[in-house]
C-alpha cells in the first residue's frame, strides 16, 4: 500500500492532496490559526474517520458471514488527544448503531469485539496510545424494502 501527499502550494495555505495507490484523492487542510483555510478535514480527522471505516467494514462483513440480516451500520467516534506534542489520540470511543432484522445482540457484540481485537488494523494500531472503548445499539428494521411497481 502506498500513497502520495502533495502540498498544493504557497497560495493554498496548508492544503494537501493525498492520492492513494488505488487512484483516489483526498484533500486535507489545516486550521486557520495554523495557516490553513479550513477547506478540508484535518489529517488527524482523516486518521479517525479511516479507523471508523475500517471497523464498520469489519462489523458488516462479520455480521453478514454470521447470517445476520443487517440493513445498516453507523459508527460515531469521539476522541481526546494529548495536550502536548505529539498530540496523539489518548481516548477513542466507538458507538455503533446497527440496523437490521432480528439481529442477535451477542452476535453484534462479538462482531465488534472481533473487529477491535483481531481485524481492524487501524484501531489495533491506535490502541497503542489511546484507551479504546465501544458501545452499540441495535435498531430493529421492521420496514419492508420498497416494492417496485410492475409496469403492464
Descriptive account of the structure:
With 152 residues, the protein is of the alpha+beta class. The chain is built from 3 helices and 6 strands, in the order βββαββααβ. It has helices at 43-65, 105-119, 121-126, and strands at 3-7, 16-20, 25-28, 69-81, 89-101, 131-140. The strands form 2 sheets. It has a 3-stranded antiparallel sheet, with no helix packed on it. The longest helix is centred in the middle third of the chain and has 23 residues, at 43-65. It is elongated. The model has no long low-confidence stretch (mean pLDDT 93).
Key terms:
GMP Synthetase, Chain A, domain 3; alpha+beta; three-stranded antiparallel β-sheet; three-stranded mixed β-sheet; 3 helices; 2 domains; elongated; 33% strand; 152 residues
What's the gist of this structure?
This protein has helices at residues 43-65, 105-119, 121-126, and strands at 3-7, 16-20, 25-28, 69-81, 89-101, 131-140.
Could you say what the CATH architecture of the largest domain is?
Answer: 2-Layer Sandwich
Number of strands: 6
Helix content class = 25-40%
Number of alpha- plus pi-helical segments: 3
Q: Spell out the helices and strands N to C.
A: EEEHEEHHE
Q: What structural class do you assign from the helix and strand content?
A: alpha+beta
Q: N-to-C terminal Cα separation, in Å?
A: 51 Å
What is the total number of structural domains? 2
The CATH fourth-level homologous superfamily of the largest domain: K homology (KH) domain
Which CATH class of the largest domain applies here?
Alpha Beta
Low-confidence stretches: none
> Approximately what portion of the residues adopt beta-strand conformation?
25-35%
Shape: elongated
Q: Sheet bearing the most strands, described?
A: 3 strands, antiparallel
User: Whole-number radius of gyration?
Assistant: 19 Å
Q: What's the arrangement of strands in the largest beta sheet?
A: 1-2-3
Amino acid at each position: 500500500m502506498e500513497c502520495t501527499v502533495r502540498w498544493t502550494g504557497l497560495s493554498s495555505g496548508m492544503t494537501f492532496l493525498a492520492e492513494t495507490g488505488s487512484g483516489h484523492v483526498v484533500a486535507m487542510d489545516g486550521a486557520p490559526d495554523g495557516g490553513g483555510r479550513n477547506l478540508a478535514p484535518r489529517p488527524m480527522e482523516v486518521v479517525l474517520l479511516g479507523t471508523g471505516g475500517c471497523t464498520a467494514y469489519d462489523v458488516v462483513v462479520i455480521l453478514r458471514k454470521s447470517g445476520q440480516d443487517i440493513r445498516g451500520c453507523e459508527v460515531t467516534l469521539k476522541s481526546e488527544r494529548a495536550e502536548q506534542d505529539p498530540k496523539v489520540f489518548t481516548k477513542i470511543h466507538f458507538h455503533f448503531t446497527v440496523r437490521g432484522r432480528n439481529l442477535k445482540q451477542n452476535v453484534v457484540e462479538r462482531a465488534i469485539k472481533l473487529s477491535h481485537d483481531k481485524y481492524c488494523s487501524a484501531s489495533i494500531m491506535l490502541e497503542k496510545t489511546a484507551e479504546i472503548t465501544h458501545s452499540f445499539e441495535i435498531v430493529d428494521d421492521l420496514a419492508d424494502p420498497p416494492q417496485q411497481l410492475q409496469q403492464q
